[in-house]
Design brief:
- This protein has 313 residues and is mainly α.
- Strands 1-2 form a two-stranded antiparallel sheet.
- Strand 1 and strand 2 form a beta hairpin.
- The chain starts with a helix and ends with a helix.
- InterPro entries: AP_beta (IPR026739), ARM-like (IPR011989), ARM-type_fold (IPR016024), Clathrin/coatomer_adapt-like_N (IPR002553).
- Keywords: Membrane, Protein transport, Transport.
- Belongs to the adaptor complexes large subunit family.
- It is found in: Endomembrane system.
Amino acid sequence: MTSTQSYNNEKVVTGEVEYPANDPASGAFFQPDYKKNDDLKLMLDGSKDSLKLEAMKRIIGMIAKGRDASDLFPAVVKNVVSKNIEVKKLVYVYLVRYAEEQQDLALLSISTFQRALKDPNQLIRASALRVLSSIRVPMIVPIVMLAIRDSSSDMSPYVRKTAAHAIPKLYSFYLIKLLWWWALQPWHFLKKLCGLLLDIDEWGQLALLNVLTVYARTCFPDPNHHDCSGESEGEKPFYDSDSDATDKGGRKRSRSPSVDPDLRLLLRVAKPLLQSRNAGVVMAVAQLYYHCGPDCYERPLNQYSSHSSSRSS
């Protein structure tokens, strides 16, 4: 208490302007003073939660004003085990800011963050995941991926949103490692999403169709770039149930383009949604067929759109 009073009796001088420290409206709270950081360290090392909370508020205020508070990291990181919820939330806010710069010290608290992912408070769970995804150290990639996977099915929508925000951070830094890991994993999510497409509500169908369209355009080869003559003689044409192999003159018809099996599944599952009562869903299906389907879909789509327009009029 004495050190705080002696500090308040001093004046903070920066440049040409002199701020009396005992004036709360003077802005001296955010002026650079190394004694102030020493006081904050003493408050964080103490046993009273009220002092720790006050210290964390002042530190977050320094960060908000653009001040460098990285030298306080060792004193702050020790308080991740605090029982006070307010202190812990502010500690996590600080760690998100400086975890990347102080990786070695942040790694010492990995086990604490993992335990915090099971905390009853949704804010603590989300903050722990946010800190974990901010520690850009390759050795903890499996831990972060496991945390994201578990949090993506959390009961709290706030935690699920945090998990979704953590994916791009992980992807942007660990691209090579993720590509290696993904190459070894069996991919079933596309089939799962295709199975859910007809069961969810129409607005969910609209969002999912847009996502699947982007995925198909990115990950599947364009079926129109493949020469039909390259197919083997024993391979059935794509539209074997809708057309014959020869035309009326007896000449052999050209085979349908080679379509990836997963893309074929997506196109087949989306086809019934052309009968949806939601015009947005119908347009999303048409967009999927237009961008990802073979050229032979173009004429039926034009006929369907013309028929729908005449029927609505």
